[in-house]
Design brief:
Blueprint: E1 12-14, E2 20-29, E3 33-40, E4 47-53, H1 58-71, E5 82-87, E6 93-98, E7 102-104, H2 105-111, H3 119-137, E8 143-144, E9 153-156, E10 163-164, E11 171-172, H4 201-217, H5 224-228, H6 240-243, H7 249-258, H8 270-282, H9 295-299, H10 310-341, E12 372-378, E13 383-395, E14 398-405, E15 408-416, E16 421-428, E17 433-441, E18 447-455, E19 460-471
Antiparallel strand pairs: 1-2, 2-3, 3-4, 4-6, 5-6, 7-9, 8-11, 9-10, 12-13, 12-19, 13-14, 14-15, 15-16, 16-17, 17-18, 18-19
Helix pairs in contact: 3-4, 3-8, 4-7, 7-8
Length: 478
């Protein structure tokens, strides 16, 4: 961007109707300009987000003005409203949008243990965002956001539903026309075609997959160009489950599928991606130990061994069985002849009662510790307090114990799955409300997840947050 200078604090910007907006803070800068927190001075004193766009060419400027008019028509609970688009005397173009107060997902991610958010919480947070993307793609013609990333997803302090922000790169997609651009998007999240090819709704699917990858693993995926030009055609994108073993392999495959370098190889729609991901994330899975493979053996070509036909395998098996039978029969006959000639050498037969070893009771469910301690984060109230789970009893997949946190306490009951997914509830506020917890056991025994507050009719009240606990050594009190 050329000649980019941010507006000073308390400077005034006026629209074509002479409405005045005073700059109160710089919210961020990007490839096209800057975003400011402004306050309307004439009547309501309402705060807005004002996005300044400084295009370098007239054609680009006309495109932005056209697309701004399109964005003004959008209405969705997970999208900020674009109120107007105007131009000042210096030729700068502005988008006046709702200001969403809250923390973005990148900030919330960095506050979590190991810098990542559990799968159950990610699915809950991202659902309204995915619905917003589906809404954008359903427009005629479809609208592509082109900059899906954790920093552009905000969890408002006054609501539980995340909001997708920053439409500086949004663009209509016309199938008969190529939407050619040069490096628009964020490295790690931008699809390969955003570096010079034509973007489509599947470009947003790549960004959505990359966002999920970061939230679940704590690692920003390698840039698409780096993946495309990797030596020996070995993709440097490590599957998500190899970084975070708590992620089901099928979910990791879905994310990799969404991040395919070729847009044709990705899911066809956002809805298809999200439905498939939900199915694989919620279905019970049995842990399969990962087999360690010698990398050198994988990379070194070996001489191919000619396949053996099934008929030859069956003949070989029958020959081995026949030989074994002949040996057993021959041994029995020889032993009978020997004992007939030497009766004194025959073994003494004792009357014994068959004894069976007691069966060892085993359970496929991960065992929980007796006590856990950690923290619980109230996102709406913007507060973090200590949390503990104590006196835990487990019978198979049923669990129960005592909860303390958020200034509340009470008994909890719930279940745990074979894959380590845990859920339990605590009745609080004299039985009028319930804390509903979900989480997953991670490496080292840490349990992390999300919670929601439900009313007496089991309806979500809007209060939600994150929690994380670690097991206490036996004998140590929380």
């Amino acid at each position: 961007m050329q000649n980019q200078h941010t507006l000073p604090f308390r400077s005034i910007v006026r629209d074509q109707d002479q409405n005045s907006y005073m700059v109160e803070a710089l919210l961020g800068t990007g490839g096209f300009g800057a975003v400011y927190l402004v306050r309307e001075l004439r009547a309501s004193l309402t705060q807005f987000a004002l996005k300044e766009i400084v295009p370098s060419e007239r054609i680009e400027k006309n495109r932005i003005i056209f697309e701004g008019e399109v964005l003004k028509k959008l209405e969705h609970r997970a999208l900020p409203r674009v109120h107007q688009l105007f131009e000042d005397d210096c030729g700068h173009t502005y988008l006046l949008m709702d200001y969403i107060r809250g923390a973005n997902l990148e900030q919330l991610r960095l506050e979590q243990p190991e810098g990542r958010i559990p799968l159950a919480q990610v699915l809950s947070i991202m659902t309204p965002v995915v619905d917003a993307l589906s809404y954008l793609h359903s427009q005629s013609p479809p609208i592509i956001h082109r900059d899906i990333k954790p920093e552009n997803i905000i969890v408002p302090t006054a609501s539980d539903e995340a909001v997708l922000v920053d439409f500086g790169l949004a663009k209509e997609y016309i199938p008969a026309r190529t939407t050619t651009i040069i490096r628009q998007g964020t490295p790690g999240y931008a699809a390969p075609e955003q570096y010079g090819g034509g973007t489509t709704p599947r470009s947003d699917i790549y960004g959505l997959g990359a966002t999920l990858y970061t939230l679940l693993t704590g690692i920003v995926p390698p840039d698409a160009v780096q993946r495309w030009t990797a030596d020996d055609d070995i993709d440097p994108l490590v599957p998500a489950d190899q970084i975070t073993p708590a992620i089901p392999i099928s979910v990791a495959k879905d994310i990799s599928h969404a991040m395919s370098l070729s847009s044709r190889d990705r899911f066809s729609t956002v809805e298809e991606f999200w439905q498939t991901l939900h199915i694989h994330a919620t279905q019970p899975s049995i842990f399969t130990p990962r087999v360690e493979v010698d990398e050198l053996a994988v990379l070194t070509p070996r001489k191919a061994t000619p396949p053996v036909s099934r008929s030859r395998k069956r003949l070989a098996l029958l020959f081995v069985l026949l030989l074994a039978i002949l040996v057993i029969v021959g041994t029995g006959v020889a032993y009978g002849l020997y004992t007939a000639r030497n009766p004194t050498s025959a073994p003494v037969t004792r009357s014994t009662t068959p004894q069976t070893k007691p069966a060892t009771a085993t359970t496929p469910y991960p065992p929980l510790a007796r006590q856990y301690t950690g923290t619980i984060d109230d996102i709406v109230g913007n507060s973090k307090t200590n949390m503990s789970l104590s006196n835990i009893l487990q019978s198979g997949n049923d669990i129960q114990g005592y909860f303390n946190g958020l200034g509340l306490s009470g008994y909890f009951k719930g279940t745990i799955t074979i894959s380590g997914h845990i859920q339990f509830q605590v009745v609080v506020y004299s039985g009028n409300s319930t804390l509903s917890f979900e989480g997953a056991i991670q490496i080292g025994g840490t349990i992390a997840g999300s919670y929601q507050v439900l009313n007496q009719n089991s309806q979500f009240t809007g209060e939600t947050g994150l929690w994380s606990v670690v097991p206490l050594p036996q004998g140590q009190s929380s």
